[in-house]
């Protein structure tokens, strides 16, 4: 699966999409698929399949879980966003409540602390993934360390954990667009907003969580959109611009994001931004 240019949706103008359910749909329909090459590269490297018991931290609307389940893995996802989880349930549990029983793979989707995801049959997880890239805010690593510490007791010794982050800013065309959030939120780089990942950020996070790094990789994840409106909606669905919206207003954030996207607009109106993401493979 590769990123695709997303069609413009005419059911709402960008500036009206402030409802949490609308933003969750924008994430699921526009933005989430941009990281599909990352999911697939990790699963291919780790040979995810029928013997894999996967716990996804911050599973969002479930695309990474869907890909893993298609490979035969038993999947569980945890997230704090009820709107995204509702979309994940629609994807992974379309027959929930019917007489047909659970679909193949028996997906589980839970809201809240990862400690709630204790396997019903007592069999430990063999893989934990954290596909939300660190560097989205100054303190997002703290939250991930806490989540990992809650989840690690649910794994067997020597299980695999995957952490992810943005690549070098010079290889991420989206970086200048994301810096709009920092500027509009009136925060210094060390206190809030998007920041580029440092060379050893993932390793440092792993050590803080009590993990042992055991390899890494980089994956190209271009962000492609059918038009500027779709690009603005997709980027705002990431939550990276929330503080900027609170500090100013949504209309201004949308306008400045659209202006920042202008260098990436092609003759046919599509938006294309090459990016690189990094992943770190660890063991418990």
Provide a brief overview of the structure.
35% of the residues lie in helices and 21% in strands. It has 284 residues and is α/β, with parallel strands linked by helices.
Overview features:
284 residues; alpha/beta; two-stranded antiparallel sheet; 35% helix; 21% strand; globular
Beta percentage is 15-25%
What structural class do you assign from the helix and strand content?
alpha/beta
How many runs of DSSP E, i.e. beta strands? 9
Question: Kindly state the mean pLDDT as a whole number?
Answer: 87
Distance between the termini: 29 Å
Largest sheet, spatial ordering of strands: 3-2-1-4-5-9-6
Query: How would you characterize the largest beta sheet?
Result: 7 strands, mixed
Estimate the helix proportion, in percent.
Answer: 25-40%
Oligomer: single chain
Order of helices and strands: HHEHEHEEHEHHEEHHHEE
Number of H/I helices: 10
Q: Over all CA atoms, what is the radius of gyration? A: 19 Å
Overall geometry comes to: globular
Uncertain segments are 6-16, 98-105, 188-192
Helices and strands, with pairings:
Elements: H1 20-31, H2 36-46, E1 53-57, H3 63-70, E2 74-79, H4 82-92, E3 108-111, E4 125-134, H5 140-151, E5 155-166, H6 175-184, H7 201-208, E6 212-220, E7 223-225, H8 228-236, H9 242-247, H10 250-261, E8 271-273, E9 276-283
Parallel strand pairs: 1-2, 1-4, 2-3, 4-5
Antiparallel strand pairs: 5-9, 6-9, 7-8
Helix pairs in contact: 1-8, 2-3, 6-10, 8-10
Descriptive overview:
The strands form 2 sheets. This protein has a 7-stranded mixed β-sheet, sandwiched between helices. Helix content is 35%, strand content 21%. It has helices spanning 20-31, 36-46, 63-70, 82-92, 140-151, 175-184, 201-208, 228-236, 242-247, 250-261; strands at 53-57, 74-79, 108-111, 125-134, 155-166, 212-220, 223-225, 271-273, 276-283. The longest helix is centred in the first third of the chain and has 12 residues, at 20-31. It is an alpha/beta fold and 284 residues long. The two termini are 29 Å apart. It is built from 10 helices and 9 strands. The radius of gyration is 19 Å and the shape is globular.
């Amino acid at each position: 699966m590769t990123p695709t240019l997303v069609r413009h949706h005419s059911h709402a103008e960008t500036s009206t999409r402030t409802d949490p359910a609308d933003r969750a749909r924008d994430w699921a329909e526009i933005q989430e698929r941009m990281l599909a090459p990352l999911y697939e590269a990790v699963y291919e490297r780790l040979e995810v399949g029928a013997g894999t018991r996967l716990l996804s931290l911050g599973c969002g609307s479930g695309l990474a879980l869907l890909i893993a389940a298609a490979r035969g893995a038993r999947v569980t996802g945890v997230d704090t966003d009820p709107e995204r989880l509702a979309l994940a349930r629609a994807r992974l549990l379309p027959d929930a409540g019917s007489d047909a029983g659970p679909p193949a793979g028996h997906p589980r989707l839970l809201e809240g602390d990862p400690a709630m995801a204790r396997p019903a049959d007592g069999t430990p997880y063999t893989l934990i993934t954290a596909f939300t890239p660190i560097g989205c805010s100054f303190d997002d690593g703290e939250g991930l360390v806490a989540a990992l510490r809650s989840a690690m007791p649910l794994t067997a010794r020597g299980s695999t954990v995957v952490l992810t982050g943005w690549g070098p800013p010079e290889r991420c065309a989206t970086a200048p667009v994301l810096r709009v959030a920092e500027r509009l939120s009136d925060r210094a780089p060390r206190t809030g907003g998007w920041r580029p990942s440092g060379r050893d950020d993932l390793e440092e996070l792993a050590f803080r969580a009590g993990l042992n790094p055991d390899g890494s990789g980089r994956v190209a994840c271009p962000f492609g959109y059918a038009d500027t409106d779709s690009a603005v909606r997709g980027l705002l669905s990431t939550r990276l611009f929330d503080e900027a919206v609170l500090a100013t207003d949504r209309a201004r954030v949308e306008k400045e994001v659209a202006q920042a996207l202008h260098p990436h607009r092609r003759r046919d109106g599509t938006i294309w931004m090459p990016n690189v993401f990094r992943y770190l493979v660890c063991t418990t």
